[in-house]
Amino acid sequence: MKRTIAGALVAAMAMLVAATPAEAAPADPVRALKAKLVAGKGVKFTDVTSLLQDSEKVTFLKRTGTLQFGRSGIAASDITADYTRYQGGIFDHMYTLKSGRTIMVGGRSYSTNPMFGEVPDGKKWAKDVICMTGGWLGTFSQVVNPAEPATLKALLKGKKQGRTYSGKITYSALAKVSPWFRLSVPFSSKEKTVVTYQLTLGPDGLPSRLVTSHPAASHVAEGVEVGDGRFSTETRYRGWGSRAGISAPPKNQIAG
């Protein structure tokens, strides 16, 4: 009996030791991320954005997308956004927003709902006036991108608890390190806006979940009252290193 128990304990310890390397996160998450930046590969994500105001939560934007890597970072993105408009409050200042799909590739972005104007009959896409990662809706969604080594490095300066890092970062700090942010919020003059974040890494050391929030006032004109309103976005990442083949829409489907 004792021999049986001892044998079982040895076997269990052997299984634990064998599992430990696979479960332990890499010591350097930035290095782990850089190893995934292979041309033609990418990562998929989903995110949900809500307005938090007066102790209420109104979810108004859901997105799914793919980021495609190049040798030095993000080379392309394909994002589909589902926007629900509500009446009253800050939503009265968001009347131009619509659901749609945006493809960014080759230094251009193409949208089924461009920032200015409409897609003419007979066409499905229009070139956005400027290249934006997720069109106009992207400015209200996740503007922090941990798939960029420099951005991830900045986020890792937050307080660490297990595999989760929490902290704050300003628009101006993001603008210095993140091409994604500069293309997501190209018109912002509110460099002092503070983004609160909570980043969780997976067992592989790569971003798994990111929750950010920032004042809704950063999206409205001076003098517009938004009270304690904040936009909060939860993004989840999966399929790091999966194949990604993002290309521009067919030319005969693009207006202009």
Please tag this protein with its features:
disordered N terminus; 5 helices; alpha+beta; single chain; about 260 residues; twelve-stranded mixed β-sheet
Whole-number radius of gyration?
Answer: 21 Å
Give the overall shape, derived from the CA principal axes: globular
Class based on secondary structure composition and strand pairing: alpha+beta
Structure summary, number of beta strands:
12
* Residue fraction in strands: 35-45%
The H/E string reads HHEEEEEEHEEHHEEEE
Main beta sheet: 12 strands, mixed
Please give the order of strands in the largest beta sheet: 7-8-9-10-11-1-2-3-4-5-6-12
What is the oligomeric state here? single chain
Helix content: 10-25%
| Mean pLDDT over the full residue set | 86
Residue windows where pLDDT falls under 50 for at least 5 positions: 1-23
- Distance, first to last CA: 82 Å
Number of helices: 5
